[in-house]
Amino acid sequence: MTKTLRGLVGLLGFLIVWEAFSRSGIVPQQYFPPPSTVLAQFVELFGDRSFLLDLIATVLAWAIALGISIAIAVPAGLLLGSVRWVRVATRAIIEFLRPIPSVALIPLAIVLVGAGPETKITLAVYASVWPILFNTIYALDEIDPVMVDTARSFGLGRGRVMFTVALPNAAPFVLTGIRMSAAVALILVVSTEFLAGGASGLGTFVLDASTGAGRMDLVLAGTLVAGIVGYLINEALELVHKRGFRWSAVDREAA
């Protein structure tokens, strides 16, 4: 409760400073509206059907991208983490691809997959794969060799050791990677909508509000919605992590 109260006090203080600065006249309110105006627009947006469709489009693209990322990164991480020669053989290409900014690939993605929702999903998948992949590899590196040797001494093959020993121990690390990738995927989906345009999405809404009527109150309200969506996603995944993996070393270290 104390932690929550402190957070609310900090948020209230930030809003008061923002309100005072915006109304001071240092910056015209049309360029930097006060939070009272932004919050009023924020509430009104949830009565706007077109905005709700934009919100649904963004969340749906995010969910698809994260699901594909998990389906790709977890098996790949298990393979690279358990088969050393595959890991060595692919290290150069992985280290070459990983630092490339996803937004820099927007023109290529548009050419390859078109300018529809596929573009933002593809780029979000590209950016989201890496945290899950490397957390999975790291998790396999951290498994106690004694556990693996004990399982093998009971006659378990490589496959059974992977699914009965390695995967359960790697699960908390994998979920940490998923939490990181969830934020990355949302950022990429909204950024691609904003930079590449599109028929719908939060990024498209912000783009239209900023370039059309120049409504900064709508821009900030839309940005606030994106931030709240990201916060709720992270809180939900953190709750799953805490309740599902109370036994894990990851949670004990975090505590």
Automatic annotation (TrEMBL):
Domain ABC transmembrane type-1, first and last residues per copy: 55-237
Record GO biological process: transmembrane transport
SUPFAM superfamilies: MetI-like (SSF161098)
Location in or out of the cell: Cell membrane
Keyword vocabulary terms for this entry: Cell membrane, Membrane, Transmembrane, Transmembrane helix, Transport
Stored Pfam families: BPD_transp_1
UniProt topology in membrane: Multi-pass membrane protein
Transmembrane region(s): 55-80, 92-115, 121-140, 161-178, 184-206, 218-237
Gene Ontology annotations for the cellular component aspect, listed alphabetically: plasma membrane
Homology family: Belongs to the binding-protein-dependent transport system permease family.
PANTHER family (UniProt xref): ABC TRANSPORTER PERMEASE PROTEIN MJ0413-RELATED, ALKANE SULFONATE ABC TRANSPORTER-RELATED, MEMBRANE SUBUNIT
Protein name: NitT/TauT family transport system permease protein
Native source species: Saccharopolyspora spinosa
